[in-house]
## 1
Amino acid sequence: MTNTLMNRNAYGMLDPFERMARSLWEPMESLDQVLKTDINETDDQYQVKVDVPGIDKQDVKLDYRDNTLSIKVQKDSFEDHEDQDQNVVMNERRTGTLQRQYALPNIAADKITAVQADGVLTITLPKTQPSNDDGQIEIQ
């Protein structure tokens, strides 16, 4: 409420420049709400690295089903903007779920490993040999 009141002019209206600035920067704010990911492939594995700074590993859920790796992160953040006199000018809290899915075929699901260190989640997905079967079934 304090922020809203601070952005009003003498007539109780929001400053038009403030409205314009908010609409201009709003799409840029959503860009940091994406799980930034690097995927490297070798002959025998995929290695997926996901930026998860400030997120506890218990807030990350991983799943591999139907040749798809799913990553789900519960993100809660709080930015404290209190000054030395402890007058709160603004506080911002964000909460939400971030999710990404990647199609990574021919994975040995029982050998997938994941490690989280220094704000980076590293998932190693060992490959299996793809089936040489062309899908045809012989009738006997």
Note: The chain is about 15% helix and 45% strand.
## 2
Amino acid sequence: MPEIWFVTGSSRGFGRRFVESALERGDRVAATARNIDTLADLVEEYGDAILPLPLDVTDRAAVTETVKRAAEHFGRLDIVVNNAGFGLFGAIEEITEQAVRDQFETNVFGALWVTQAVLPYLREQGSGHIVQISSAGGVVSFPLLGGYHASKYALEGFSESLAQEVAAFGIKVTIVEPGGFATDWSGSSATLSAPEPAYDGLRAAIAGFEIKWLDPATIGPALLKIVDSERPPLRVILGSQPYGDIREIYAARLQTWADWSALSVEVDGA
């Protein structure tokens, strides 16, 4: 039987690729976007297999109603992909309060509202798979992306707890951590803070970093392999460059903790 997907942020980027991959193999998709006109070509090609739904994930009431519409329309929900999100660029000193709040409203609270809304349906049917689209920036941090990193760390934190809470109900959770893909994440969909000249040197140094930008066409098939797995991972890194970077950074963390382990034990007071 075809599986039923609920995907946020379906208009472009990863979300669009996920929807296309699901539809191409015969699944059905409730595809949400702020502007569903961007999905018109998919409706024309796939007809009733796709249900376009307008949604701003920061509107909790709208999230609850939209999830209800999707579940009632298709009769069930199998795979829920929290993909809606955007990047925030700027040094910690530069980012404004409103920019950080907006970042969390979408990247954290949007995913939280969708997760809470779908859980009653997944629990009742005793199955389901929640996929949280995080980032390699959800486990390691780099300069000038502190607000974005904070949002992805928060997403991963509640998702790891979620996985332990819902396992007994037959619900799976996977946190996907992509590296750099050639989408508009750092372009038109990003928020850039007003620059403080003191950080111009840092910006110039970072601009010289070599990033291997990956083809987003590979992201859809990769997600299909994850959701088709009998034992999907809690976390999966997508991209060889972030995989190597994360291994090195975590090795350094472990070494630092080991170097200071005497103090760790000392505070026990025993």
Note: The mean pLDDT is 95.
## 3
Amino acid sequence: VRTADGERTERLGARSSYHYQLEAFAERVRGGRPLPLGADDALETMRVIDACYAAAGLPPRPRTAL
């Protein structure tokens, strides 16, 4: 990372990002606390992913029935 104050190297964890997500979810469930994000956030994330597919010229992901 280069900034006006200098340069530094940051190291991220070696685990998959899914591991961190699952860990955070399990902590919330065990503690009985609500999740910080809801269904609206999930829908917006799906819209962003769909837009990325479209921008890359890829077909939309197949839909599944709920």
Note: Residues 36-66 form one domain.
## 4
Amino acid sequence: MINSKAIGYITANYAGTEASKLIENRPVASLPFMGRYRLIDFPLSNMTNAGIRTVGLVMPGNWRSISDHVGHGKDWMLDRKSGGLFCMPGNPYGTTKRGMRFLLRDIISNRELFERATTPYVVMMGANIIFNMDLDEIIDAHERSGVGVTMVYVKAERHHDDASRLIIGDAGRVQSIEAGCEYGDNKFIDCFVINRELLLDIINNYANADYLDFFEAIAGDFARIDVCSYEYKGLAIGIFGERSYYQRSMELLTPDVFDQLFQKDRPIRTKAHDAAPAKYYAGSNAQNSFISAGCKIYGTVRNSILSRGVIVESGANVSNSIIMFSCVIKRGARVENAILDKNNVIPENTEYRGTPDAILVMGKGARH
């Protein structure tokens, strides 16, 4: 199925709202998630599951990890002669605020994507709020409404959320967008549909404000442009820093929560890797964990998420932790309440332990 109504635009060219060792050398969009995925997999999968076969991906300056992961888009059915995945250059952040997702300068400099399209709509998404949504429903609702822009939101389930909130008036019209969410607010999930011709008009009319976020630039014209809202009733997970990354990952170890994000009829696709299944040796013990292919488990793993190629040696114990690619937990070592980035080696008979309120985070490739 090819969606004849919309093309896609995904931005990966933005910094996180918090500094972190996890994104010192990679963009937010390529952050590993649930062992085998990266955050970029979710917007790509949402679009391809809806039949969108032309997708522009705006790359950050530190683009290499995203490029290595997505390639030509084959794993998302985007390696096509007509349409396909277009990896487009992003602009330097300059004086823009951290966390600004839809930089108008990027949209303007990649206007050719929108000019060449023949579809009436563009679906635009970020990468650090992830969900598994039927985009066809959003596109159809936008078409029926006859408005210029439809912004998708959920009801915020937590206090002190770093997402933006929508102020919504009569008939679902968006009056403004503000930073920060509290419980019950209308949390914008960085997904919206816009009429392609309107987008081209905005590109032409707002060039002098290209240093702003898209919605900051058009804030004074919400009523004229006719910006509407759509409430999504499913699960939307925001990753804004180490704490939210850890907490949201741990919540997905609960099957009911996991099943809301990973659905058989709308699979989340990722880069294929030829790796043997995880192997559990005599004396090993694994409980309530997500353990990826290529892992070798000799010791104990509880309530944890392990990426490909992790080795937990005999007598080692991993609990309540996220262990990324190719880490080795040596014999007798203990790791608890921690996030270990890839290629870490934990020495024998040592303890690396955080607390639920102060997670221990180790950057890439440390040897201790």
Note: The chain has ten helices and 28 strands.
